[in-house]
Amino acid sequence: MKTLLNNMRLGKKIGLGFGLVLFLLLGIIALYQYTLVTVEKGYDSLVSTEIQISKHAANINSYMLQCRRNEKDFILRQNTKYLGKLEKNCNNLIKEAQSIIKIADLHSYGELSNKAKSIISNAQAYKISFNDVVENQHEMGLDHKTGLQGEFRKAAHALAENIKKFSVDEYYFNYLLLRRWEKDFLRSGSEKYKKRLEKTVSYFKKEFDVIDAKKNSVSKDVLGKEIELNNAINDPRIEFQKSLVQYNANIAALFKLDKDKRANSKEYANIRGAAHGMEDYLKGIHLPNAKSILLEMRKHEKDFLLRNDAKYIGKNLAVIDSFRNLIKGSTMLKSNKDGLSPILNNYEKSFLTLTEKQVIKDHHIGELRERVHQIEPAVADIIKLSESNGDKKQNDILMTTKLGEQIALITGLVAVFAGIGIAFLIVKMITKPIRKTIEIANAIAGGDLSQRIDIQSNDETGDLGRALNKTAEDLSTMFNEIKNNATMLNNSSEELATISNQLVNGADNMSQQSNTVAGATEQMTTNINTMATAVEEMSTNTGSVSSAAEQMSQNMSAVASAIEEMSTSISGIGTNSKESMKIADEAMKMAAVATKTMNVLGEAAKEIGQVTDTIKSIAEKTDLLALNATIEAASAGDAGKGFAVVANEIKGLANRSAQAAEDIANRIAGVQKNSTDAVDVISNVSEIIEKINSSVGIIEKSVEEQAKTSNEIASNVMQADNGVKNIAESIGEIAKGSNDISKNAGEAAKGANDVSSNIEGVNKAASESNTGAQQVNVSAKELSSVAGKLNSLISQFKLKEDFKAA
Predict the structure, then answer these.
(1) DSSP of 421-478, one letter per residue?
(2) Is residue 419 located within the same domain as residue 472?
(3) Are residue 341 and residue 388 in the same domain, yes or no?
């Protein structure tokens, strides 16, 4: 590749670089277009499949809820208008599921298709179960007057109407009251019982007036049809009414008779006969608690119809059985029993038939609920699968988009870097040879003809490099000879310069040797004079030092002894003063503690005084109680003698307690006084100790000042000692002067030797100057020959100086 580029011309290289970058840019545009188309198709697929499936699933859920609502409305209201609504909603539900199947099969979503098929299957089963519920409801009746509900209602009303005829508990109670007032009136003849008797008779008359008004009455149902009340049993209250009329007529006649004639009268005999007839008729129709039993039956019946709980069926059947047993065990006439039993059996049969249908209806409703419970999770699964597939597709779209973006980004970066690289490569391939050419040209211009250009390309830069290399080669050949001749000339010149330097150095050496001889002579004279002076000074200094050193030694010994004794005394005073201050501080602290302790003792003494006051008060009260006890014992006579003895003992103890308390109080007062005195004394002692402490402090300050003064004296002594040391140093100088004398004498001898040596050097320098002059002569001849050759070579070139001369 590199060889191919090197063989190309510059125009082709630049065109190839721009073409490659343009190709990469076109690739990026194509990649972005492909990514956009892929994303668009992915989202179109997402909208047309997963979102549509979710929408259909949501519609299924909505239609299912509407079906449940129609179902509940029909069951609660028994209105046939909800049947058509449910049918329509269920069909719409199936259509939505079929739409899901179509989309799922188109995109090979097998699980989604199976879920939708199960929804259709359960929806169809739901319709069948609901039709069973509707059919069962029609049999039961769409309201309480039709179907089995209407038949059961008729049976219940017939039973209620007939039981009313035997619910004579109140009649029986008033009949017994009637007989009671009758006997009370017959016994006492009181007007009060007469009124009560008449009131009870009027009660029965009012009741039978109501019965007469209700005879042959009818009721109307919601359709307007007249339904006669069940008259399977003749009303036994009619017979009771006849006896009551007879009783009422005879009781009115009895009221008119005298009191003593009433008991044995014919009217009373008729009254008794009518009363017995009334009693016989009541016993023949009396069914105890029939009304309450009927109410209990109706209660269980309503509980079942409202709550739909099977336990109320058993409760109602148990009440029916107990009612049947009540009829059998009652005092009713056989004809009444035979007439009431079929009515009860008809009620039981209607109730059981209705409950059986209700159980079947509940079963069908349970099937409806089961189908719904199968549809709901299937719808939820479809939504979940649809969302999962949608999320997967969306992730795939995002991944495709991200991948396209990454590829485009990478391709763009590759294009950018490739462009930069190609541009850099082309520029480098152009500029590097040019820079090298310029560098070589500058080197040639500066006189360096040894460098060459490494040519690796066949373009215009390669041609330029080859031309410059040829020029440099020709110049190099030409100037090599000039360089060699110049080197020879240079060497000859250096030899001449060396010889000249040797001549100059020889002359310098002779001059220096002469100077050295003169200096050595002068130094010898100076050293001899110095030795004489040093000997004289040494003699004088030795006498002075001996006298001064002896006197100073005596003074220093005396001063040192005095200072040592003073320092010892001052140290002792300082130590004693510090110990005194420490003892004074401890004494003050102990005095403060003693004062605090005595104050506490004083407070304790006060508290003990309060306790003794309390003891004295108790003793006084005890004495008073003993006095009262003595008085009470005296008033009791002989019986209180023993108590009086005890009272006297208590009184004696109280007196002794009072005396002891008084004695304690006196002693406590003494303790309090002593404590107060002790506190005062300790306070005085504390003040004295504080003054002592102050005085000791003043003494300590004075001692510190004396110590400072003694330290200054010691410093002066040290300075005197330094003077002695200086004297010793002077003696050392004397010794040093003696040494200098001997040293100067040696140097004088050495100077004489140097004079002789330097004279020999002067002779040697003269000989070297002669030899150098001969060599300079030979070198001058060689330099003349080289100059001739150099002029011959330079005359072959045209130089600037030649043009100027012309």
Answers:
(1) HHHHHHHHHHHHHHHHHHHHHHHHHTT--S--------SHHHHHHHHHHHHHHHHHHH
(2) no
(3) no
Q: Does 159 map to a domain?
A: yes
DSSP string, 721-789: HHHHHHHHHHHHHHHHHHHHHHHHHHHHHHHHHHHHHHHHHHHHHHHHHHHHHHHHHHHHHHHHHHHHH
Closest to 180 in 3D by CA, of 164, 199, 167:
199
Q: What is the mean pLDDT of each run of 10 residues along the chain (806 residues)?
A: 68 74 77 68 63 91 93 89 93 94 90 92 93 91 87 92 85 91 92 93 80 47 33 57 88 90 92 91 85 91 87 94 92 89 94 91 88 88 80 76 79 78 73 77 73 74 74 66 58 57 55 53 51 48 48 52 54 61 65 63 63 64 69 64 64 66 65 63 61 59 61 58 54 50 49 48 51 53 57 51 45
- Does 429 map to a domain? no
What's the CA gap between 802 and 22, in Å, rounded?
59
Could you tell me if 416 and 448 are in contact, meaning their C-beta atoms sit under 8 angstroms apart? no
- Do 212 and 244 lie in one domain? The reply is yes
- Rounded Cα distance, 652 and 540, in Å: 124
Under 8 Å CB-to-CB from 548, ≥6 apart: which residues?
727
In DSSP terms, 226 is beta-bridged to: 220
Distant-in-sequence, close-in-space partners of 425: CB < 8 Å, separation ≥ 6:
5, 17
CATH number at residue 535: 1.10.287.950
**How many structural domains are present in the chain?**
3
Q: What is the DSSP string of 543-557?
A: HHHHHHHHHHHHHHH
133 plus 149 within the same structural domain: no
> Quick one: tokens of 382?
């479809």
439 domain-assigned: no
Range of the domain at 525: 462-794
Question: How far apart are alpha carbons 496 and 776 in whole angstroms?
Answer: 6
For the record, the structure tokens of 585 come out as 């501080």
Q: From CA 534, how far away is CA 539, in angstroms rounded?
A: 9
Q: How far apart, in Å, do the first and last CA atoms of the chain sit?
A: 56
Task: Report the C-alpha gap between 657 and 666 in whole angstroms.
Answer: 14
Query: What's the half-sphere exposure (Cβ side, CA atoms, 13 Å) at 39?
Result: 14
Residues 129, 364: contact at Cβ < 8 Å? yes
Burial of 63 (0-12, 13-18, 19+ CB in 10 A): buried
Q: Comparing C-alpha atoms, which of 74, 85, 82, 87 is closest to residue 142?
A: 74
184 and 58, same domain (yes or no): no
pTM, two decimal places: 0.41
* Cα–Cα distance measured from residue 290 to residue 165, given in angstroms and rounded to the nearest whole number: 10
